[in-house]
């Protein structure tokens, strides 16, 4: 069949796993793009270099911890995030909700990123309206994702080094006329920002990707591979490049550092920058398709091939992008993003600490299949999930603490307490997987 289903509802077998650097280059590609420079520039505009340093440190540590633990669960079980959620606290129907949130959120961001992609090509090439470029770029990314993880890896091998070479050339050229010591001592030039706010921005910029880490790490071979790729990709991609963005902002005295790359690199630079955008958007579409496939399976008993789901979602996202209406839903997508951190907190707490359904996963892993039984849903978990998400949203509105971390910790700790008290069984019905299917 055209494309690759990529074990959307099954365990990834050992024969389909990859060396750690093949997965790492894709994770690095998600983090090493224009947005990380803009992130650093935003921090530089509002705080001193050392304030930005600590914001990036705190935010990156949060992301690394979440990604490592969620990723280890993914590599051990070989399951996508939404499927793994069935046995990590959420049950069958809860995992369907996760799949729906993921699919809805990421199809929206796919469309928004595609619009940015199209506008970049329009400014470079022109010729046709932006909406036409939106259709072209959306269908190109959809075609790439249809062929799955392997092809996405090959694209990363090309675009990631090209982007880093371009970025290095542009940055060195811009900073060659400045003293690094003077730049590090530069005072911020924008609205003052606290370290907590900065750390929130850093963690929030990639928390959804960290939560969905199992979608990627199920293709790893060992937990050690997960740790290596996470530390390398987040440290270099989010941390180092973010600090470069801070220094760049001091050098040009503005937060718009993107113009530097276009100005110093010409048409080739713009092409590379646009290509780098693909490495974010292909994973938006990929994880969205996995969530959608799981939702259809759990709610309606339909086993839809991931290729079909990818094409459907890609066409819808492309159409919305071309229509130019997705920017109106950015606030809604941001609200959905608040629901992501507690998912990781709950899943990690269940898998590593409470272990209510861990024996079923361990037994099934030995045979390469899925557990024979599963909870239909776990009402207590859904209450914790909603409560933690609401508290995270509240802390963001009140600028209290670090919202992404707050909701993640609240969700994880609350689940741990409830699990240790033996309350997870309240309202929970355990059934065979065959019985649970509609």
From TrEMBL:
GO terms for cellular component: plasma membrane. It comes from the Bacteria. It holds the Pfam family Transp_cyt_pur. The keyword Transmembrane applies. The chain crosses the membrane at residues 52-75, 96-118, 130-147, 154-172, 192-212, 232-252, 258-278, 307-326, 332-354, 375-394, 400-418. One of its GO terms (molecular function) is cytosine transmembrane transporter activity. The keyword Nucleotide-binding does not apply. Signal peptide: none annotated. It is found in: Membrane. Keywords: Membrane, Transmembrane, Transmembrane helix. It is a multi-pass membrane protein. Belongs to the purine-cytosine permease (2.A.39) family. PANTHER family: CYTOSINE PERMEASE, CYTOSINE TRANSPORTER CODB. This is Cytosine permease.
